[in-house]
Design goal:
Layout (H helix, E strand, L loop, with lengths): L20 H6 L27 H26 L13 H9 L6 E3 L5 H6 L4 H9 L8 H4 L10 H15 L6 E6 L6 H12 L4 E7 L2 E2 L2 E2 L20 E5 L3 H16 L5 E6 L18 H5 L6 H11 L5 H22 L20 H37 L1
Parallel strand pairs: 1-2, 2-3, 3-7, 6-7
Antiparallel strand pairs: 4-5
Helix pairs in contact: 2-3, 2-11, 2-12, 3-9, 5-12, 7-8
Bound molecules: thiamine diphosphate (TPP) and magnesium ion.
Length: about 400
């Protein structure tokens, strides 16, 4: 366990919670979100968080390009009726990529409905991921294969599950770290409080990662909290909080990486708030023009995570025209696989609605499953009768 004191205010590197005012001060986030590369692609040094090296950034930039392409492709498939719903992370891809790549194989990721790109970046098959959003299955992938929990739709529930997994890993003496994602709106849920409090009291290896995209559907952040920032909430639990520019891939890798290292070294939980923006509607079922202006959205266009990382990598001479083209080709190949897979008709068995949730079904579920079976059997009989009637008609027709 780390015994270093947390000298840098708000730094997630080292640091031990304590009861004194100075220890409390050490848990505070920095006054401004940590930024290592600004929107013009210029780098800034930060004593607490070293800039990741160019090779690492280039690799993560490729994931960013693919992430944007996945968002665009999924939106198009919603319009074509091939996906039921898609909560896009367009504009939030730096958060998505960083959340996945800071983790090791032994770690766990707990994503929300908006974190499809993070799940795919972690290595889960895109078609399996999108099965849920097509509405075919409870979740389309095996959570154990890549250590990615199912994408949670009920807000903040996954934070409790994440803390449980992290606590269990600690009790078993494993080196697993759990990264649990949630939105700004989810921080108002009771589950958020319970998860953070338990994690802090039991000193479990979990990183809470809030993507503050300024909205919870139509509810703006100012109606969600009057805390100085969401990261400031950490101090109430006795864990460090940090703020990071959520459109700065370099800063996200540095800050989340430090939080993961800290948890793995026995430093306990921490909270990271990334300030970003939801560039598109909440989902295809939402009309964002009813609660925010186009000007508000336009203000975030120059802060795009891809634009600034591209500019920075160009200044390092790490990104050439050909390099850009091959990253775009890779992204297109992923999009083509998604398109092809989702344009294929699937045969689903409605009876499976009742499977795989409970080891033993409740009496109500057994009853409902039986009703469905009867209804399906009636439908099948009716179809068969209609088919034989049609065959009879056509035979008569032939005789005439
Ligand atoms: C417990 C619960 N209450 C309400 C909802 C309905 N709901 C779905 S998304 C959402 C907004 C969440 O906003 P935020 O946490 O900021 O995440 P974002 O969608 O912005 O990524 C709400 C209220 C829900 N899914 N679960
Ligand atoms: Mg939000």
């Amino acid at each position: 366990m780390s015994t270093a004191t947390n000298e840098g205010r708000g730094s997630l590197i080292g640091g031990v919670p304590g009861g004194t005012p100075s220890a409390a001060h050490a848990l505070l986030p920095s006054a401004e979100p940590v930024q290592l590369v600004d929107p013009d692609g210029r780098s800034h040094s930060d004593q607490r968080y070293p800039l990741p090296d160019g090779g690492r950034l280039l690799g993560a930039y490729g994931r960013l390009i693919t992430g944007r392409r996945i968002n665009d492709q999924a939106n198009a498939l919603v319009r074509q009726g091939r996906l039921a719903v898609y909560p896009s992370s367009h504009g939030q891809e730096a958060c998505q990529v960083a959340a996945a790549v800071v983790l090791g194989e032994e770690d766990w990721l707990f994503p929300t409905y908006r974190d499809t790109v993070a799940v795919i970046t972690r290595g889960v098959d895109p078609l399996e991921v999108l099965t849920l959003l097509r509405g075919d299955w409870h979740a389309g992938y095996d959570p154990y294969e890549h250590r990615v929990a199912t994408q949670a739709t009920p807000l903040a529930t996954q934070l409790l599950h994440a803390v449980g997994v992290a606590h269990a890993a600690k009790l078993r003496g494993e080196s697993t770290v759990v990264l649990a994602m949630c939105g700004d709106g989810a921080t108002s849920e009771g589950d958020f409080h319970e998860a953070l409090n338990f994690a802090a009291v039991f000193h479990v290896p979990v990183v809470f990662f809030i993507q503050n995209n300024e909205f919870a559907i139509s509810v703006p952040l100012k109606n969600q909290t009057v805390a100085p920032s969401l990261a400031h909430k950490a101090i109430g639990y006795g864990m460090p909080g940090e703020r990071v520019d959520g459109n700065d891939l370099a800063a996200l890798l540095a800050v989340l990486g430090a939080a993961v290292d800290r948890a793995r070294d026995g430093g306990g939980p921490s909270l990271v708030e990334a300030h970003t923006y939801r560039m598109q509607a909440h989902t295809n079922a939402d009309d964002a023009t009813r609660y925010r202006s186009t000007d508000d959205v336009e203000r975030w266009v120059p802060k795009d995570p891809i634009v600034r990382m591209r500019a920075y990598l160009r200044t390092l001479d790490l990104l050439t025209e050909e390099g850009e083209q091959s990253l775009a080709d890779e992204a297109d190949a992923v999009a083509a696989t998604i398109r092809k897979g989702l344009n294929t008709e699937v045969q689903v068995n409605p009876a499976e609605l009742f499977e795989y949730v409970y080891t033993e079904k409740t009496s109500q579920l057994r009853e409902q499953a039986a009703l469905l079976r009867e209804e399906l059997a009636r439908d099948a009989d009716a179809d068969a009768a209609a088919a034989s009637g049609a065959a009879g008609d056509s035979t008569e027709g032939d005789q005439r």
